[in-house]
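User: Run a structure prediction on this.
Assistant: Running it now.
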Amino acid sequence: MTKKPAHTFTPETLKTFDKKKVETIRDNAVRLGADDLVAMCEEDLAARAPVARARSSSSSSSTRRVSAGGSASRTGDVVGGYHFVCEKDHGVIDLGDGRFWSGTWTVSDADVDKSLDAGAYLALHETRSQPSYRQGKIVGYRKAPGDDEGVEFLVESQPKARAWVGAGSGDKGYKWVRQ
């Protein structure tokens, strides 16, 4: 027996709302655990405009602050791997097709653009001392809804766990590679 959804939204009804309203519906669906509605909202938002930025060597976006793990830029280097402490998939949206959105992280748009060109990966860890539980190649990113400094990564999942990389303390670590 198929369980009826606890909502009345359909892809057609979502199309009648503006983008901000669909983002609000999605945020509420995440909070309430309505995975089918989250997926519907993600599909609707993806169809409205390119949410994942195309790989580009230039960016018109401003650079945002970076905490723990490195400076916003290192001469001649690019971030080839992002490691984040993300307990219990907080903010992660699994798209069900081998891809997921990472949750919101404060990183430099300029670093992310260069990282996309370099084929960077992302790894999520419960703690810095444990291997990643979710990881993969970054294929795009978008500004986080309602967060001027936040970025969400679109990631193609890969099975191999990764050990923590990055100096300093905090919830972020960067693997720097020569450009």
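The chain has four helices and seven strands.
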